[in-house]
Amino acid sequence: MMIISSAGYVIRIAKSIWPPARQKFQVCAEAEQLGRRPRGLSHHAMIITSFSSKPATIQLPIMPASQIGVPPNEDCLLPVPEIRFIHKYGRGTRYGPSQSTNMNATTATAATAAAAAEQIEVALQQNRVVTYFDLSAAMLLVYDYFITLPDEIQLIWSSRWGGIQMVFLLNRYAAFWNVGIAIYHQFGSNLSNSTCFGLYTATSWLIACGIGMSEIILIYRTYALWGKRKSVRYALGLLFIAAWIVLVFYLNKVIRSMEFAPVGKILPEYQGCFVTKIDNILYICWSIALAYETILQNYRRTSSPLLYLIFRDSALSYITLLASSVANVLVVRLGPPGYTYLLTGTQHALHVVLSSRIVLNIRRSAVSGAIVASNLVEIELEETQNSVASRSR
């Protein structure tokens, strides 16, 4: 809750900088008296909030009445696109109208300020929880990277390069770019709304591309298990394109709906971006990804130890991603706007980790001893073809 000090400060929050409060607040002022205060003279406004043990002191310049369009002796609308604190009373000199004429406006403004401060407090609490989840997702990526790095060097970097290697490496290393951006938009200082919008836009598309590359790995796995049949390739390819056209459409709508609160400009000791509004149709994107993974999981054939290993790993991966996707859908549908991206980083990290493990496990099983095959695809196809031939006999 925000308390306006007894010295008599009135907060004015403009339309363009506080998206949830899209209205202009009435403030009574006398242009002649307010205009006498020289421009650039700073004053203090005390904000006391329940989430901070120390009140935050903000210094802002006072603008002449002529520059803020205050008509004399009238109630006025102040659409200045920034937050200002208007000093009502000075050292023995009164600025603004009399208390009797300004009482209703001051009370209404104080109530609005209190509601805005409560919204700031909620945004801070939600942002803190999202930060914890983002950090845990980053730690999962880093931990998995270091424990699988020896296998990557032996099985990926030492083998002949192909399409799956490129997708594997892009999927694995692009995730760290996303982690860096996510950490910055959670811990950056004095981030403007436009900067936050750009950071969240980059994060959203990086995560979408990362999950897309993970799906390509799963498609490759299914395609190889079916002996590289053209019908399977075309079916999975067309389904992938259709799913991602719909996903991109809805993700773009979600990104365009995002709005942020400039908490860092009000309370500099708090860092990061604070989402105050976002369309909850993001759950559609997670549902599309989940549906496609379900199709891939059930589009399979069995036999041979290698294929059994692939199915085992893919089944465990699917169960994990299913639980994560369902949780994501529930959070987006039922949670507040600040929690829309709560599990996004976790979902991305799980896709990267599990799809990478599938590739590494297939290659580890296909390799005899420590020797990497010159053409892993041929080994995988040979396993599949042998299993199909044995069943046909």
List keywords for this structure.
393 residues, 62% helix, 8% strand, Rhopdopsin 7-helix transmembrane proteins, mainly alpha, 2 domains, 8 strands, single chain
Number of helices: 11
H and E string: EEHEEHEEHHHHEHEHHHH
CATH architecture classification name of the largest domain: Up-down Bundle
Query: Which range does the strand content fall in?
Result: 5-15%
- Helix percent reads 55-70%
Mean pLDDT: 67
The radius of gyration is 29 Å
- What is the class of the largest domain in the CATH system? Mainly Alpha
Task: List low-confidence stretches.
Answer: 1-106, 368-393
**Which term fits the overall shape?**
elongated
Which structural class best describes the helix and strand composition? mainly alpha
Main β sheet profile: 2 strands, antiparallel
Number of domains: 2
Question: If you consult CATH, what is the topology of the largest domain?
Answer: Rhopdopsin 7-helix transmembrane proteins
Q: What's the arrangement of strands in the largest beta sheet?
A: 1-6
Q: What's the β-strand tally?
A: 8
Distance between the termini: 77 Å
Q: How would you describe this structure to a colleague?
A:
- With 393 residues, this protein is mainly α.
- It folds into 2 domains: 9-97, no CATH class; 119-392, Rhopdopsin 7-helix transmembrane proteins (Up-down Bundle).
- The chain contains 11 helices and 8 strands.
- It has helices at residues 31-35, 65-68, 99-157, 163-187, 193-225, 230-257, 263-266, 282-298, 305-334, 344-366, 376-392; strands at 9-12, 26-29, 42-47, 56-61, 74-77, 84-87, 259-260, 275-277.
- The strands form 4 sheets. A two-stranded antiparallel ribbon has the order 1-6. The chain has a two-stranded antiparallel sheet with strand order 2-5.
- The longest helix is centred in the N-terminal third of the chain and has 59 residues, at 99-157.
- It is elongated.
- The N and C termini lie far apart (77 Å).
